[in-house]
Amino acid sequence: MRDDRRDPPADDRPLVAVVDYGAGNLVSIDQALTAVGARVQLVRDGADVPKAELLVVPGVGAAAPAMERLERGRLVEPIVDWIRSGRPYLGICLGLQLLFEGSDEDGAETLGILPGRTVKLRNAPTLPHIGWNQVERRRDHALFAGITDAADFYFVHSYAGVPTGDDGEAAILAETEHGDRFVSAVARENVLGVQFHPERSGGNGLRLLANLVRWSVALSAGATMGALPIGAGGTRGGD
């Protein structure tokens, strides 16, 4: 009797590790990353961080409880080690704020990857800042390839990071106005962060995530920063 069974095909989609510490809309993030051609693995413990092309730390809420949950999950050191090893990282909303040295919201000490602190939005007409707003770029980056400058993205937050010093200033990628202007995206070498939620930002959000996955694959494969694509459009899910 002939055996027609076959081994399942290898899944060659880029692997994205998404940190689950109880502070993010993981269903939407999973669906959006899957739509742009990635496969997602949730990480709940520092011992389980996979060999992936990209690490994503999402989140909503306050810094102190977020850091406590990361500590309980033994995730702080693996996240810092991941970043310092030069591997691609994206922080979304609170995941961006945690990159700074501390937060004025509750006095928490955060990861200290970028110089500066998270502060309440200044002169904001409403808090929290909820809804669509323009993201105005200071410079080009592969993350925004094929996306019009000042395109709208979806925000939910009351605080934002304020980079300090020359290194912090150089990391600013984009700004948004809600009262005073605030930093809505950062980029420094292998580290990216966005204050908005790309997984809730429609076509522009999907295009950005597609760009992100492509950028991560190139960087993980050994491409230099100068060789990474800037002018290309989005891929699956972004066009």
Write a structural description:
- With 239 residues, the chain is α/β, with parallel strands linked by helices.
- The protein has one domain (15-227): Rossmann fold, CATH 3.40.50.880.
- 25% of the residues lie in helices and 28% in strands.
- It has helices at 26-35, 63-72, 76-84, 94-97, 165-171, 202-220, and strands at 15-19, 39-43, 54-57, 89-92, 102-103, 116-120, 129-137, 151-157, 159-163, 172-178, 180-188, 191-194.
- Strands 2-1-3-4-12-11-10-7-8 form a nine-stranded mixed β-sheet, sandwiched between helices. Strands 5-6-9 form a three-stranded mixed β-sheet.
- A hairpin with a 1-residue loop joins strand 10 and strand 11 (180-188).
- The N and C termini lie far apart (48 Å).
- Mean pLDDT is 91; it is low at 230-239.
Which short descriptors sum up this protein?
Rossmann fold; nine-stranded mixed sheet; three-stranded mixed sheet; 25% helix; 28% strand; disordered C terminus
Extended strand count:
12
**What is the CATH homologous superfamily assignment?**
Class I glutamine amidotransferase (GATase) domain
Helicity level, as a percent range? 10-25%
Average pLDDT works out at 91
Distance separating the two termini: 48 Å
Q: Do you know the CATH architecture?
A: 3-Layer(aba) Sandwich
CATH first level: Alpha Beta
H/E element string?
EHEEHHEHEEEEEHEEEH
Radius of gyration: 18 Å
Report the total helices: 6
Low-confidence stretches are 230-239
- For the largest beta sheet, what order do the strands appear in spatially? 2-1-3-4-12-11-10-7-8
Number of domains: 1
| CATH topology annotation | Rossmann fold
Taken as a percent bin, the fraction of beta residues is 25-35%
Helix-strand category: alpha/beta
